[in-house]
Amino acid sequence: MMVTPGKSTPTGQTQSVFGPVISPENIETHEEAISRSLRDRLKNICGKLSREDFDALIAKMTREQLRGEKSSRR
């Protein structure tokens, strides 16, 4: 079944580009999945960044993704 990101599935879960949005008790796992996905996709593109700068970029992008998902559920 294809689901558009930001739309609800028949079970009521919201879909993000990273998969179904996890319930609040599992939010840390979802955050880790987003972070891992971003790291995997950006590691070759951002190779000139220091480890600290790359980690800061991933943290900021992860927060923005979660914030966007939260605001789309309103």
Describe this structure in words.
The chain has a domain at 23-72. The chain is elongated and about 35 Å long. It has a two-stranded antiparallel sheet with strand order 1-2. β1 and β2 form a beta hairpin. It has helices spanning 27-42, 51-72, and strands at residues 15-16, 19-20. By secondary structure, it is mainly α.
What labels would you give this structure?
two-stranded antiparallel ribbon, mainly alpha, single chain, 51% helix, 2 strands, 74 residues
Write the layout of secondary structure elements.
Blueprint: E1 15-16, E2 19-20, H1 27-42, H2 51-72
Antiparallel strand pairs: 1-2
Helix pairs in contact: 1-2
Q: Look at the structure and give the mean pLDDT.
A: 79
The percent of residues in helical segments reads 40-55%
Strand order of the largest sheet: 1-2
How many separate helices?
2
Structural class: mainly alpha
Q: Beta-strand percentage?
A: 5-15%
Uncertain runs: none
**Largest sheet composition:** 2 strands, antiparallel
Cα distance, first to last residue? 24 Å
SSE string, helices as H and strands as E: EEHH
So what's the overall shape? elongated
Number of E-state strands: 2
Radius of gyration: 14 Å
